[in-house]
User: What shape does this take?
Amino acid sequence: MSEFLTLITPEEALRRLNAHVKTLVGVEQVRVTDALGRIVAGDLRSPEDLPAFPRSTMDGYAVRAADTYGASEGLPAYLRVVGEMPMGKHAALTVGKGEAVKVHTGGALADGADAIVMVENTQQVDAETIEVSRPLAPGENLLKIGDDVKKRDLLFPSGHVLRPQDIGAMTALGVTQVSVFLRPRVAIISAGDEVVTPETSPAPGQVRDINTHTISGLVRQTGGVPVPQGIVRDDAAELEKAARRAINDADVVVISSGSSVSTRDMTAAVISSLGKPGVLVHGVSLRPGKPTILAAVNGKPVFGLPGNPVSAMVVFDLFVRPTIFTVGGCPRPPMPPVVTARLTHNIASTTGREDYVPVALAVKDGTYLATPIFGESNLITTLVRAAGLAKIPLDKHGLTAGEMVSVRLF
Amino acid sequence: MSEFLTLITPEEALRRLNAHVKTLVGVEQVRVTDALGRIVAGDLRSPEDLPAFPRSTMDGYAVRAADTYGASEGLPAYLRVVGEMPMGKHAALTVGKGEAVKVHTGGALADGADAIVMVENTQQVDAETIEVSRPLAPGENLLKIGDDVKKRDLLFPSGHVLRPQDIGAMTALGVTQVSVFLRPRVAIISAGDEVVTPETSPAPGQVRDINTHTISGLVRQTGGVPVPQGIVRDDAAELEKAARRAINDADVVVISSGSSVSTRDMTAAVISSLGKPGVLVHGVSLRPGKPTILAAVNGKPVFGLPGNPVSAMVVFDLFVRPTIFTVGGCPRPPMPPVVTARLTHNIASTTGREDYVPVALAVKDGTYLATPIFGESNLITTLVRAAGLAKIPLDKHGLTAGEMVSVRLF
Assistant: This one.
């Protein structure tokens, strides 16, 4: 066996790769309403104060707080209602001593007033008079100018991934265009003499391509642009040609190759021939996914993924996903969805190795139950039946039925 | 106060709505490679067996298991290597008694053989001979025809949401087109005399529209098509006109209206005027989100969402999200991402009410820490700073620092 595996932990492996990966510098302006999932390029500061005017947070009356000092149910303050503030306007209404102006939630504060008394704490005495049954502090039940966001406040640091509420925050502040990093282009090469396209009727010995399509979906979910490179024969010269084209055309290269030792060794040799520093990690203390190749060529990450679909998904999640975010300008990727579940069966493992086991999930009495899907790791049905991957940490010699386990949903 | 709130639990509220909501019947054929996130319409069965030929799962030699019976390190079996099975072909090689054919992981099984011996359990004796140091059972280290998927096996039930691995499973089976439900069209109406578009420079008393854009993003994440209807004045006739147009044009209607009691009452009255059964729920034992309106008009769900952004997100997640899936043909929506975290501060609540509190998340010693973001619930910065919403269940009178809490990531 020519293969030399220095097994390091997944965490250490990613650190070694990160040291050689460059972030994209390309930036584009997009409409805020098209920016969902994009990564903010450059710190974004608020162009204005929000709210831009003092606003009531309650239905009630704008008053002078001093007029309510000492008010109680037994000894209420009496105020004269001099008008109603319409929504969407700042009507020329002034609250003088002993006066009140009716206001709705979100309405502007009348001039002269400094607090809002909730309608629940008032009693209508006659058409023009209310009783106030509790004292107010100045500023109560209202937002002052800039209480939500102040002009020049940092709204999002560079690298922030935009979520629905972030889009809403920008529209609230009148930000209609935003500068975002270009989406990383991820080239996907599927290598193997046995691999044919999904449209082909396979001859005996041939199988249709799975990983190009699974990985394309994963890349899309990660905010990247999948750039499938087609199927390449198990031939060093052909693979090298395809890999060179991919590295010129894309920001990240993923090579999914066969699972035989000879194929993996050839993939590693080809990657190393592309440029410096080449292969950084070949072999990780991980199951499935041990024969993973992590490499960098002139600042661009190159991955050699095991051919079987379960391994490919695990390796994508642990290494490719965070790297696509790093390349795309987001140094701290959003947390992947993980639930804590109670294991229904024992799972064997080995201390010093991180294991991921496909599990089905059910809910019982408000707790997730994780049932391992045992079987060959190269079965596509394993992944189709699974709701996620249960993690057996490095330091565990397996897990016992009844133990809690974290499950990465997919 | 004309408002009459019958407070029911969020679970019961959703059940009442579901009883009146119809699933879309429209279906379209899409390319499998464009089907990520779509919902399968009709049970999908496998068109063929996978694998289509007996395949090795290891690097090694195809042998007759009977030739290895009794083999051990001390007393190995000697086999004559008669050839090598190339990848991607079924070469005319036959394994006779005492013979072996070299094979790679994923390669076809040679005729006459019924098991694969791993290369690790063999020793090369000379150019033509190997030693086998352990006995094999028939079928060992190989997949027989249909071991992964059998022809006509159920691959996905109708209503399954397609994930990356499901796309890969279909391409593996030569499925290149798939029948999916049409994406639900979700009309979004933003009502309020104070609301202006993001492009507008607001006059005193006016605020820019937030919820149309936040909700559009949430609808996209849920697989629906947002159909923004623009901003409508707080006028019953105008709102009714907009709502009627929305219900004709879309499959789901979301009305985000102001937070004042009068506005909410008007919204409820307008919804009830649209058709039967009208408003089903007005008020849920939920904070924020108490004044939620759930309604159905001729099988189409209509939602009245509170105006403030945090409430709108909570109500979207609890009611609109599952309903979009139901309408779209998926009766059991994918689990939303939830992590379990340790609370850093006490949170007050009331028994009988479900509370959602925006929290920031950090990781310490492998555990998530959830820090509540206190403050006005109508601040957009609360949502921008939050990583998710911590849930305080109905039966809890608040939670104490140190307790574990589930956090819905967003």
